[in-house]
Amino acid sequence: MEFSELIRTGQAQAELLRGPEMPPLRGTLCVTGHHLLLSPGPQATPDLWLLLLRSVDSIEKRVAGDAGTITLRCKDLRVLQLDIEGVEATLDIARSIEALSSLESVITSFPFFYRPKGLRLGESWHFHPPERYYKRVARETRAWRLSEANEDFSLCPSYPRAVIVPRTVDDDALARSARFRQGGRFPVLSYYHAPSGTVLLRSSQPLTGPQKRRCAEDEELLQAVLAGARPGARGFIVDTRSAQAAKQARMTGGGTEAKSAYPGWKRLHRPLERGRPLQESFVHLVEACGDLEQSMDRWLSRLDGCHWLSHVKAALSTACLAAQGMEWEGACILVHGAEGTDSTLLVTSLAQLILDPLSRTMAGFQELIEREWIQHEAPIFLLFLDCVWQLGRQFPLSLEFGEGMLLALFDHSYASPFGTFLCNSEKERCLCEVRTRTHSLWSGLNQPKEQRKLRNPLYAPNPLAIWPSVEPQSLRLWQGLFLRWTHPPEPSEVAWEKVWQIATDQEKTEGSQPTDSASEPQP
Questions:
Q1: Which residues touch 87 (CB under 8 Å, ≥6 apart)?
Q2: pTM for this one?
Q3: Among residues 79, 130, 456, 521, which is most buried (max CB within 10 A)?
Q4: pLDDT tens column, 453-468
């Protein structure tokens, strides 16, 4: 299929309305295979306005007289209005945008065509391979080993080729455990907490079913986890479903770990919303943030009614529970819901940020994203970023990256010229040759000119765990994301640059001052 087959009208005269704080832009509107661009007239700025079509979430069109209007709601929360000359041109452009923005083929997406100057294909994909972290853990403890039982993705298509597992568990046992877990997601190590010698694991639900089936190899795997930790260690299974939901899952083939079959492990239910309820909460919040004419009472009512901050609180609370079990009680933690993806990754990732100083560095955070979030669903990844923003706000010196990094990850996770967030599994990535045919996001974000916008100039390494407050008074609406297109206070880039300038001036001042030893007279 050629992109030209989907483009009904190549260009038209139009006016673009980008928001209340930005002047309208008028010029020639063009549709390409991957972009919508507007070229202003010669009397205006020579810069092109460019929009990646994959970022369009929905499109509305209406016509009146001899003109029409297209309203684009974008995945980065922008709402754009295009006033176009000509009814036929309006309808044809709308149909072109609808067709091109909804293409399902991964290999037709823009990252497979993006070739920026100064970057080479394959570069930076080696920065944060999951295997590097696993090898580091295997070196630090004799209780774990790197297994390549999933080399051909036959055990679990959503796991990488190599995973880290207890050293006493052989690959045959892993295969049987995988068959006992939904989607093949058997328990694997997510994080090794060196101070306590305990581990954080993730998996999917066991397929016990109404017959209460058991799997000896799965039981042995979790026993080996406890045996490899400190003497007398116990474990907690944090189930991100309610007890009732887990019970219902058993009737359809899923279930939970029976207490008698997994001695030393205790199950805790901490339900987290996912799927449609979370999506509806997100949609209601975005609608409330986009309403510029509501009263204060109406705004507060809608903010409370969407329950988004309640989801933030629940996610942080559950992550703290997992982190406290490792840090304070020296326990091993297994996290899972049903599939062992969305809410599971949310908890394991946040727990690592709470406990691990390395995960709070720029490189460590990128490694965490690469290792944990290859498979994600909207808006669960946004919820994760919001929780990280809450951590950064409560601990402004402890994260090496700032809000700019979180906003960049949000934007690129939905529509990006880079291939890092393409596909939902490592197997699919390999089939599409993502690592050899696209550029890594980190190759772009780690450029020196980008780092100044992404790093936290106030960062001071903190070797301790950071325990966030989840009280209602401590959680805030992330204005930098949800209000950035409608009520921008001061552009975040400008404010960030001022902080950088202050930090830079301070460094220069300290560097120019003579030390005490230098001022002492020499004998």
A1: 63, 66, 67, 68
A2: 0.92
A3: 456
A4: 899 999 999 999 999 9
